[in-house]
Task: structure prediction
Amino acid sequence: MSTEPTSAAASPFRLAPATRDHAPQFVLPLVVRLERAAPPARTDALETAARAVLTMLTDERSVGEGEWAQALRDWQDGRIRKVVRRARGAEWRRAEALPGITVTGRSAEVRVFPPVPLDDWPKDLARLQVSGTDLDDPGPVPPADPGVPALWLNPDLAMSAGKAMAQAGHGAQLAWLALSPEAREAWHATGFPLAVRPAAPSRWPTLTAGALPAVRDAGFTEIAPGSCTVVADHPALRS
Result:
């Protein structure tokens, strides 16, 4: 992965035809543990998914000559797709047995796996459901700490928890790409603290008009192509 900041205009999530569209397409699988008796809180699941993406990008197996490094490079040569599936019980145990990393939040567990070809998922992941990943927060969610990187969700879009988790992961990755090496090192060293929150409707136009990294959805599921879903607001990028 390049260590140079990447502008929103050069984002791998842009919709304009590009050379990367002709490359073999890969996807980053994420699986959220969704037990019937103890589902995670929605906000915690979104934040845990975002941290899982960052953890995969920085794992020693994903860089240099690591065992996952080629898969990460192949994935980033095409559209940087992420798909969130859900698992419980034996499904979760089978997913845990596959190579990957489990990231734990306050109530959420998300396992992220090295990228796989778009049409060739491991069978124990391919059989997991994508739809139905609907979660709620059990109580009021506190405001985001202004000193912590924030991933602001479009307040005008209704997204399932699974869709929002993937979008939060996109936002975290764009923030990472845009940071200087020093800012990346500092974020990594502190365990990737971040907040995912819906933006205030009055603030959303200002967020999208600025220079902060923004995710524009390709429109494969749930929302219209070109919709801006997330703005990544890292303190190191605000100037």
